[in-house]
Automatic annotation (TrEMBL):
Xref: Pfam families: UbiA
Keywords, sorted A to Z: Membrane, Transmembrane, Transmembrane helix
Chief place where the protein resides: membrane
Transmembrane stretches, start-end: 69-89, 110-130, 136-154, 159-178, 184-201, 222-246, 258-276, 297-318
Subcellular location: Membrane
Membrane topology: Multi-pass membrane protein
Protein known as: Prenyltransferase
Protein's organism: Sphaerisporangium flaviroseum
Amino acid sequence: MHVAESAGVHEGPLRPEPPPGLAVAARPGLAGDLVRLIRPLHSIKALLLIPIALIDASPWTFAVVGRVAWAALAFVLASAAVYVGNDIADRHRDRRHPVKRRRPVAAGRVPVWGACLYCAVLLALLAVVTGMGTGPYWPVAAYLVLNVAYIRVLKHIPLVDVGAVALGFVLRVVQGYLATGERVAGWLLITAFSVSLLLLIGKRRQELLGVGAAHRPALAGYSLELANALLQITSVLALVAGLIYLRTEAPFGPDHGQTAMMLSVPFALFALFRYLQIQLAGRGGTDPVRVLLRDRVTVGICGLWAAVLGATLALVHYPVLAHAILP
């Protein structure tokens, strides 16, 4: 997602800098460093969130799908530029982190001037993409402004830091709706915001257990008790908002929205239970993207949930198919 997300996992206490010779021996190469700078794994945030708007698009056309894909490309470039800018701004603090110290700028493998040039190239490509695209791209611009404020100020303010990052996820969803031209589903935005908060609070909790406030000053405003309470609150909000969306605004119609909601309850509950189990009873790690993608149980339950909702949507929109399958 985002500037607040790290590419590492839970580690032990802070360690001193390795000998210079060791860092040189482990150097992966400039091309690999440039790829690492833009966090390619985190592109999945745009590739998953922006196309959510296609659920409400009817009918799907090549033009609509193309606009959504173009919007996803714009956000991938925007987030890549933000990651590079964040690494430049945080290079001194990253050098005191057991995992982030290996990032290309913090480790000195990519010079600051080179990272600045790289960021400028990414922003130039973003300008080209948004200039060639159709429709408004104000969520991309808002995302960049938000992240400049985040890097400079907001990331150091407890609670505000996670809210700012979660807002970046919401902007991705809004951009998808602007690409399709459909009306924005309010409850879906609340769901995206609350799920993002849930993941980010879990990340903060793991950071408290790991490196503490030495690397992230905002952690001084958190505690394990507060993080646990916030996890409970955001879990309830995410569950309720998501079910209300399925019941009222999802494209199942007034007659089948309740069916979709009821079918989703066991999947949604189990997915939340699993995430809380990972965070509270396991070793969650500080990167929510890696945590969720590597957990086979979570991937499996979400895949089954998507299949059930997809089949329900198909039966709703194609009554002939429903009559052929159902007695």
